[in-house]
Design a protein that fits this description.
The chain has 435 residues and is α/β, with parallel strands linked by helices. It contains 15 helices and 15 strands.
């Protein structure tokens, strides 16, 4: 018989309800494969064609031969060996950031990561220096970053959003920093998704972004900006990233991912960390160099073949990924319009039921007059054949018990309309007597 271990002797994160909630969501999706699923925040799969991959790889190899003048031996080493810890395609990413976001990034300030999730873990590991250190997060917040903080035993402090569509509240951030410091804590950084955040779908307007940057600079708190959805507004107009607005002041570490703009199976992301780090002997390095040290002890490097394919996609689009994603933007915008219209048609005027109106992205949040928890989700899937995500797991300080997240990225408009009809039947069935 295999040796038995006790959960109480393992790291506390393994018994955290947050991890259990995400496991349940994966299991319930598997139990009801024929249900209309508003649960996964995935890109639409019909955008992908396996036949395109060899072409992207060849585009990158041609770049190595013709632009970088590498020999065939050097090319074999480039794509088959471990490679540089900071990554192979940083110059291409820097070019795309300049074209798409107006971010002037030195390639040496980039680290190519195994998805943005690794970038979060590296940044938090570097900043987590003592027991009084605190990570501030928007509330509700993406569970990937709160989960990473839990793995590192880093305290998380929630900062409320400014209404259902307004994103993180800059005034609330400043107040939270004062409160924490008065309690003897050290607020180190604040994680924020300014565009179409997961899970709320909320966005910050430009004035709020400037106020947030001012609050960060005044307080000395580093902003960790995550931008997976910025290309996918309901209109083509783009708001400037925090990193672009901040210029060279160093208040922002920028996290990027190719999961939504290229394809998630590549597991390629990146971070821009151009802050200077001073050693006790007076030497200075880039924060990116320090994060690369951590990466060398975890994933060693990001898959060279995956980087080559993503590099080929960047080159094929002329290092203009926003333009290349315009068909996807229109698709997701139509889906969000369809979702909001379907909610109005099926649930408009129903007592106690409301929802926000995101400017884009993948997610919307519905508020209901009953507890929308894992048990309710299972009941909804079993009786009505529709899946969604409970919001309570996204609130690190508690809350969200009467809210559910709908993701419209993975479905067709007909599936969205059908799914909302099924959801409406479930909601009306759960209304209090007389509702």
């Amino acid at each position: 018989m295999s040796r038995e271990l006790h959960l109480a002797d393992l790291h506390g994160s393994l018994a955290d309800p947050l991890l259990d909630a995400m496991t349940f969501l994966n299991e319930v999706t598997g139990r009801y494969p024929d249900a209309v699923s508003f649960a996964p925040g995935r890109p639409y799969e019909e955008f992908f064609d396996p036949a395109d991959i060899p072409g992207y790889l060849e585009t990158y190899l041609r770049h190595l031969r013709e632009e970088r003048k590498l020999t065939e031996h050097q090319i074999r080493r480039e794509v088959f060996q471990y490679g540089r810890t900071k990554g192979l395609i940083a110059p291409l990413i820097a070019g795309a950031l300049a074209a798409d976001e107006g971010i002037d990034a030195d390639p040496e300030a980039l680290v190519v990561t195994v998805g943005a999730q690794e970038g979060m873990l590296l940044v938090l590991r570097a900043l987590c220096a003592g027991p009084d250190d605190v990570l501030l997060v928007s509330s509700p917040c993406y569970v990937g970053v709160t989960g990473a903080a839990r793995l590192l035993d880093l305290t998380v402090h929630p900062v409320p959003e400014a209404g259902p569509d307004g994103g993180l509240d800059p005034g609330a951030l400043a107040a939270a920093v004062r409160e924490l410091r008065a309690a003897g804590k050290c607020p180190r950084a604040c994680y924020v998704v300014p565009d179409f955040a997961n899970p709320s779908g909320a966005s910050m307007d430009e004035a709020a972004r400037r106020r947030l940057l001012a609050a960060a600079e005044q307080s000395g708190v580093l902003l960790i900006e995550d931008n997976p959805y910025g290309f996918f507004g309901r209109t083509a107009a783009a708001r400037p990233t925090l990193k672009a607005l901040d210029g060279d002041r160093g208040n922002v570490v920028y996290l990027g991912s190719f999961a939504k703009t290229c394809f998630p199976g590549a597991r390629v992301g990146y971070l821009v960390a151009d802050q200077r780090v001073r050693a006790p002997d007076g030497r200075t390095t880039l924060l990116a160099d320090e994060l690369a040290k951590l990466k060398s002890m975890t994933t060693v490097n990001t898959s060279a073949l995956a980087q080559a394919v993503i590099g080929g996609m960047l080159l094929a689009g002329g290092l203009r990924l926003r333009a290349a994603n315009e068909p996807a933007r229109r698709f997701y915008a139509r889906n969000m319009d369809t979702l909001l219209a379907a909610l109005e048609a099926a649930l408009g005027g129903v007592p106690g039921v409301s929802w926000n109106h995101p400017d884009g992205g993948f997610f919307a949040v519905v508020t209901v007059p009953f507890r929308a928890d894992a048990r309710a989700l299972d009941d909804c899937a079993r009786k009505h054949g529709v899946l969604w995500t409970p919001m309570d797991g996204f609130h690190p300080g508690g809350g969200g018990e009467h809210q559910l997240r709908l993701s419209c990225s993975y479905l067709t408009p007909d599936q969205i309309t059908d799914g909302v009809r099924r959801l409406a039947d479930f909601v009306k069935e759960r209304l209090p007597q007389g509702g």
